[in-house]
Amino acid sequence: MDIKGLHEERIKILQQLSGLQVEKDNLLWRERELNVKNDIADVFRRSSAVVDSRISDLGIEIQKQIEERKMIEAKLEEASREPGRKEIIEEFKALVSSFPEEMGTMQGQLRKYKKAASYDLFSFINFFVQDLKESESELKMILKMYRHELTDPSIELDGRVRTPKWNWMRCEKNWQLMS
């Protein structure tokens, strides 16, 4: 091989190296992005678990209140059969009448937690899908710029070794020209 052939081979290897460096940088960026998304998903799962636990606790509490109300009503019925227990009956009636308010409050809280959980899930999914679309668009643009750089005959390599920083600056310049 002559010097010109070796020089062309060197340029070709440098171009391949540059391409591999850009690909490596893209993969590292993508890995970091996925790590952040995994962290967000973990936070959401934990939040959802807390909400589910609270919903379960409220359901159990509502069931206890229902059972207690039934027991008190049964005692009230029993006490009403006995003569001279009007005072006790009035106290039971007052106690029983307070249960619907407490149960209504708990049921309202239960609905609120369920609604919040479904809204959080929907928001997270929308955020995740939008972020993936943006990432895909950015990666396509980088690939397009890189292909343009490799196939553009006006770009001359002067034989200097190109650093990843130089390659990135070149990509940014091409991005600005294409925008």
In terms of quaternary structure, the protein is: single chain
Reported for the largest beta sheet, the result is: none
Q: What is the number of beta strands?
A: 0
CATH topological fold name: Substrate Binding Domain Of Dnak, Chain:A, Domain 2
What is the average per-residue confidence, as pLDDT, rounded to a whole number? Answer: 76
Tell me the number of structural domains: 1
Give your account of this protein's structure.
The chain has a single domain, classed as Substrate Binding Domain Of Dnak, Chain:A, Domain 2, CATH 1.20.1270. It is 89% helix and 0% strand. It has helices spanning 3-81, 86-151, 164-178. Helix 1 (3-81) runs antiparallel to helix 2 (86-151) and helix 2 (86-151) crosses helix 3 (164-178). It is rod-shaped and about 120 Å long. The two termini are 42 Å apart. The mean pLDDT is 76.
Task: Please name the defining characteristics of this protein.
179 residues, mainly alpha, Substrate Binding Domain Of Dnak, Chain:A, Domain 2, 3 helices, 89% helix, rod-shaped
Task: Give the topology, please.
Elements: H1 3-81, H2 86-151, H3 164-178
Summarize the structure.
With 179 residues, the protein is mostly helical. Helices cover 89% and strands 0% of the residues.
